[in-house]
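User: Here's a structure from my thesis project, written as structure tokens. My advisor, Dr. K., wants to see whether a designed sequence matches the one we expressed. Can you design one independently, without my sequence as a hint?
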């Protein structure tokens, strides 16, 4: 199997945050993940092996909780856990396709684990996962707890949903289930380099996770994200920032990844790397990248349910856009919206799109 990690990622310094992203009018909003609440709660949670507590909140009105142990994080694979009623859909979509090689089953979870905290916990405010330098810890293992937030904005509004977890620079989040529907809010927002390992989204509300810090890398590994009307992973950060998705299963979604089409002070480049990922029921495209800002999409070992139909170009794999800034018009699909292959932006070969 080819590995996308042979790429050398040179990441720049932090920059200003971007706001109010949108895509072309025919598709749902490509906005930035909602900002964290000013009354964010400090991280709390737990594991049989690792504490998931944190230090004091950065907000003057934040609730404080007791820090837990920082014992090494559990590495129990999600493939050994029992399936819940939110098990990933395996309904076939598409026809034709190439390849037949199976992805690495032990590293690619296909079912969301049964929550260890019953029906789950709905928190009142955004939880900030502070890093060790700021009084928290660098690894938070939630032992497959299901957690959401008391979100009052409708999932279809595109903006304004509360973030469930705001993750500080250098933090790894493991074995976490984000509650589905309205409590899923704006999911997880990474404020620097972050790793989301064995994280599961039952039913994505606004976005599953957002890369929001210029020059940072957001890594998603061995994870599942289901049911999104639009985007799964939103990429707002500029300055050579990178989103990496590996060994994961994504189903029933508009776009797996989108580079912001209309951010305040929009720009790039933004980079996406996908390797050993299964997708099903792709409504719009796997990846949408901004050609005019120098974005890159590198895809290896993408497994499409039912295969890629080359004659009808379904599902779309990598679309190129001409993005805009500061709400000066709408981002435009280039090449009539057709999938692009082996271009400077879409570094994708048809041989790397396989059927399952």
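Assistant: Designed independently from the structure alone:
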């Amino acid at each position: 199997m080819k590995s996308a990690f042979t790429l050398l990622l040179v990441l720049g310094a932090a920059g200003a945050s971007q706001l109010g992203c949108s895509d072309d009018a025919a598709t749902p909003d490509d906005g930035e993940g909602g900002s964290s609440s000013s009354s964010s709660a400090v991280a709390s949670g737990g594991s049989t092996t690792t504490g998931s507590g944190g230090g004091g909140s950065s907000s003057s009105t934040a609730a404080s909780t007791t820090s837990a142990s920082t014992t090494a994080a559990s590495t129990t694979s999600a493939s050994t856990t029992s399936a819940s009623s939110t098990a990933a859909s395996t309904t076939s979509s598409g026809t034709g396709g190439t390849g037949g090689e199976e992805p690495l089953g032990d590293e690619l979870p296909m079912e969301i684990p049964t929550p260890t905290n019953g029906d789950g916990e709905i928190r009142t405010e955004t939880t900030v996962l502070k890093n060790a330098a700021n009084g928290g810890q660098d690894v938070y293992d939630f032992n497959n707890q299901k957690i959401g937030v008391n979100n009052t904005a409708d999932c279809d509004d595109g903006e304004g949903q509360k973030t469930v977890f705001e993750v500080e620079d250098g933090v790894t989040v493991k074995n976490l289930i984000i509650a589905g529907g309205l409590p899923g809010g704006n999911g997880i927002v990474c404020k620097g380099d972050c790793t989301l390992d064995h994280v599961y989204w039952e039913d994505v509300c606004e976005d599953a996770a957002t890369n929001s810090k210029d020059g940072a890398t957001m890594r998603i590994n061995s994870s599942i994200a289901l049911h999104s009307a639009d985007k799964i992973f939103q990429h707002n950060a500029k300055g050579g920032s990178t989103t990496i998705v590996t060994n994961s299963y994504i189903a029933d979604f508009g776009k797996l990844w989108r580079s912001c089409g209309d951010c305040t002070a929009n720009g790039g480049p933004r980079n996406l790397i996908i390797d050993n990922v299964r997708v099903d029921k792709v409504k719009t495209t796997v990846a949408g990248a901004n050609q005019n800002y120098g974005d890159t999409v590198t895809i290896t070992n993408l497994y499409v349910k039912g295969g890629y139909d080359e004659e009808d170009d379904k599902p779309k794999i990598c679309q190129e856009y001409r993005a805009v800034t500061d709400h000066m018009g709408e981002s435009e699909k280039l090449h009539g919206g057709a999938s692009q292959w082996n271009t400077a932006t879409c570094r994708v070969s048809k041989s790397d799109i396989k059927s399952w």
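When you compare it with your expressed construct, this may help: Confidence is low (pLDDT under 50) at residues 1-20, 22-39, 45-97.
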